[in-house]
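User: I'm writing a short report section on ligand binding and want a predicted complex to refer to. Could you take this sequence and pyridoxal-5'-phosphate and write out the structure as tokens? A short remark afterwards would be nice.
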Amino acid sequence: MRGFGTTIFSEMSALAVQTGSINLGQGFPDTDGPPEVIEAAVRAIKDGHNQYPPGRGIPALRQAIADHQQRYYGLVYDPDSEVLVTAGATEAIVATVLALCETGDEVVVLEPTYDSYAASIALAGAVMRPVTLHGPDYRLDVDAVRAAMSPRTRLLLINSPHNPTGRVLDRQELSAIAALAIERDVIVLTDEVYEHLTFDRAHIPLATLPGMRDRTITISSAGKTFSCTGWKIGWVCASPPLLDAVAATKQFLTYVNGAPFQHAVVAGLALPESRIETIRTNLRDRRDQLRGGLLAAGLDVHPCEGTYFLTVDVASLGESDALAFCRALPGRIGLVAVPSSVFYVDPGPARSLVRFAFCKRPPVLDEAVRRLRKLSTAGAPSRTRSDTHEVRSPG
Ligand SMILES: Cc1ncc(COP(=O)(O)O)c(C=O)c1O
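Assistant: Sure. The structure tokens for the complex follow:
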């Protein structure tokens, strides 16, 4: 079943190892985040923060999350009743969907989708209603969102900055979502894990729009901002009735998680804004570095306003099957990427699209760019056809 079994990340990672390829398939950095954050984690372990933390997260972290929302977005949340710490954004998403959806309820999502959405919705017995964002610009089609909504719509699940397209929704698109949510009296879950990793346009949290604070469940995570995806410290900000429902579900998923890492993320959230700006500009430079290499290789590169990912259309190289292209790429030039079709229910619009991650060290990207130059001279591509795979790993 699509969404919790059909990604090919593991196959591609295995191919990367077998062929000694550079792995630009999976979306995690190859360096540690800010040293203060790493040191705070070590200190927290040594200071004995190794037992179950409080159910909603340590007070210092809930306060730091509330401060962060106020400092960056002017959003005021009460750390005791409106903030919950979770095992990454992944747990926050599944706990929210399980808490709010009954069997047969419908959840409208933006497709391509991060792969845990379909699984979370299926676990709740709910039905996913995808609205496709079409490249190369991936603008939101508001009429398509309206058409996907029905009397059974319980949630709109919006991801911006968006994985895998790199799209950052603008105020006009967000206002249209807000108007629909208010008109139909629907709750919106926003996945904002890449909130600080935007390059051309600032991220706007939906909860800042008029009338949206109390109908938006805002989810984020430390993993992407502080390059600590393995720590799995995420959070939810929402009005008390919504937060209570999510917290009630969360307690039976993991109960609590990551005690020492919660302390470390306090240190991360306390970093001055200039440090976050440096993280953003470094990543933007890497986007540009890889983008240059992809363009030079003759690939049609879609715009990317945020996240870790660039999308290319391999049709510009005369290829029509991105999965076959990705399977052949390690052997051809020693590079791994993933076909974007794994993020779609119906891969029709994405059959020739490929996602490359640029959250890697500059020398690694330099070498990737060097290998990409060989693309036009590396011999005929494989024409093997796609089939399905039953393995999931983070993406
Ligand atoms: C859009 C999106 N949401 C959620 C997650 C998961 O975040 P976490 O690792 O905090 O669970 C990811 C990770 O890749 C993601 O890309």
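A remark for your report: The longest strand covers residues 153-159. Residues 1-5, 382-393 have pLDDT under 50 and may be disordered.
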